Amino acid sequence: MDNKKLIGDAEIFVKSVLEGDGSGHDWWHIERVRTMAMRIGKAEGADLFIVELAALLHDIDDWKLIGDSISQQKAKGWLLQCNVDQELTARICAVIDGVSYKGALVSTATVDPECKVVQDADRLDAIGAIGIARTFAYGGSRGRAIYDPNIGPIMHENFNAYQKGDAPTINHFYEKLLLLKDQMQTATGRVYAAQRHQFMLDYLEQFYAEWNGGEF
Ligand code: NI
Fold it and tell me: How far is the CA of 166 from the centre of ligand 1 (A)?
């Protein structure tokens, strides 16, 4: 099998599915995750072919987009259609399976080196300036309020409860975004996460100052 051709075909396939998405899971999210995953993967000595292919396909079956549990049906179907053997297909699907965030109190730590890399890259795109933009885009796509001081954050204990969450978007910072820094799986991921985490803290400080109409 020609690995380079498979990567190119995956790019075309993913673009065609996610191109017009307005929930923060568009093609450019995939492209940023791929770039970051390759950078982290190189630094961590991961298998870059597995990393790149899994990064490209990681949101094709995302439960947030298809409203279903994670099963990797589309990714699996596409890989098999491309005559990728069962072993590699299972390997890629296993990496993708481990990427998703499943709730504040649910551990998604993994020993799989390629999964660590793609998970960190995906989570880095969920924090910082772009993470903030994506979070509000996603909340808006679900008709959620920006903020409601009367509704506090919930630390979800299982994936099901997390999936059903429908709180204002600011709550998502406490239920996910601010927790990601300490869940990074690679040394490279931790370096990027620290800076983006601080940016979100500064953002929230400004947000509440403006909300309360006070002087800074
Ligand atoms: Ni993603």
Answer: 19
Q: What is the pTM of this model?
A: 0.91
Contact status, residue 77 vs residue 4, Cβ threshold 8 Å:
no
Q: What is the pLDDT of residues 42-92, one digit of tens each?
A: 999 999 999 999 999 999 987 665 555 556 889 999 999 999 999 999 999
196 alpha carbon – ligand 1 mean position (Å)? 17
Residue 154 CA, ligand 1 centroid: distance in Å: 22
CA–centroid distance, 118 to ligand 1, in Å, is 9
Q: What CATH number does the domain located at 3-211 have?
A: 1.10.3210.50
- C-alpha 52 to ligand 1 mean position (Å): 13
Residue 2: DSSP 8-state: -
